Amino acid sequence: SKKQAEKAVHQKKEQSKTKCRKARRRHINLVAEFNHRQRKNIWLETHIWHAKRFHMVKKWGYCLGNSPTEKSYRACYRAMTKQCLLQDLSYYCCLELKGKENELLKQLARICSIDTGLTFQEASCLSGRFEGSLNLYRADRYPEDMLGPVTFIWKPRDGSENRQLWIWVHPALKQDILRELKAIFQCSEPEEICISEPVTTSFQEEKQVEVVMSLGNKRKKEDKEGEKAVPVKKIIGDGTRDPFQSYSCDRSMEILRYRLIGPLSHSVLTETLKAASVQTV
């Protein structure tokens, strides 16, 4: 048809303007392209590695590896049983609370119950030595209105009465739990800050990306100057928050989380992590 013919001509024109591979693979062009492609679904830090080896799915505002492209699962099974298998769980959302320990525990007691077992006040967890898990409920509504399961980690004490608590929640539960935490702690942040909708790029941001992408047509020396003149905007956190504003509660995609499974997990951590030298004044 006439429309199909016009479409084919239009596609040929677009293809003819496509940059060569060397220009497309320049760092400034890649960053701009990757930021553009994850406006709707955020990529994890390990996205590129997974995208080459897994079938990807779009869930809860993220792009996640679902199943390996190879027909056999033997490699993963071998790693779990004899070596070490690493899973990227960074799509789990981290909610951070800071304040005096007694005040935190007083309000947190309203959204959980000792009848279900563990609470935020469990001694082994409160010291920061162990991670705890429990079910959260709407404030003063137990046993009704359950919000969902979470895990939590207290930052070890530093001698001060101020404490820091990280609560890890599934992204599907994030908004309900975050709203409840804001209510019981009377956070002053506006409600729309932590909405789960993807960020809509403004006209100026779109224009900025176009300018950055067009830099590939210039020579290499000009690219360096252009990179300074038009910095590529990096997506902050999970993309649902303004990068120019600070937040005391939502740390999604700022604190990454990995799970290691297998007999060599401890050896991998020992070889990878090095203790920092603490200097006391």
Key terms:
4-stranded antiparallel sheet, 281 residues, 3-stranded mixed sheet, alpha+beta
Detail the topology: elements first, then pairings:
Elements: H1 2-16, H2 21-24, H3 27-37, E1 42-43, H4 47-53, E2 54-59, E3 62-68, H5 74-82, E4 85-88, E5 93-100, H6 101-108, H7 123-126, E6 132-137, E7 146-154, E8 162-169, H8 174-185, H9 203-214, H10 220-229, E9 258-261, H11 265-272
Parallel strand pairs: 1-3
Antiparallel strand pairs: 2-3, 4-9, 5-8, 6-7, 7-8
Please provide a written account of the structure:
The chain is an alpha+beta fold. Among the domains are: 19-70, no CATH class; 93-188 and 246-255. Helix content is 36%, strand content 19%. It is built from 11 helices and 9 strands. The chain has helices at 2-16, 21-24, 27-37, 47-53, 74-82, 101-108, 123-126, 174-185, 203-214, 220-229, 265-272; strands at residues 42-43, 54-59, 62-68, 85-88, 93-100, 132-137, 146-154, 162-169, 258-261. The strands form 3 sheets. It has a 4-stranded antiparallel beta sheet with strand order 5-8-7-6. Strands 1-3-2 form a 3-stranded mixed beta sheet, covered by helices on one side. The protein has a two-stranded antiparallel ribbon with strand order 4-9. A hairpin with a 7-residue loop joins strand 7 and strand 8. The longest helix has 15 residues, at 2-16. The protein starts with a helix and ends in a 9-residue tail after the last helix. InterPro entries: Pop1, Pop1_N. It comes from Vidua macroura (Pin-tailed whydah). Residues 4-99 form the Pop1 N-terminal domain. Pfam families: POP1_N (PF06978). This is POP1 protein.
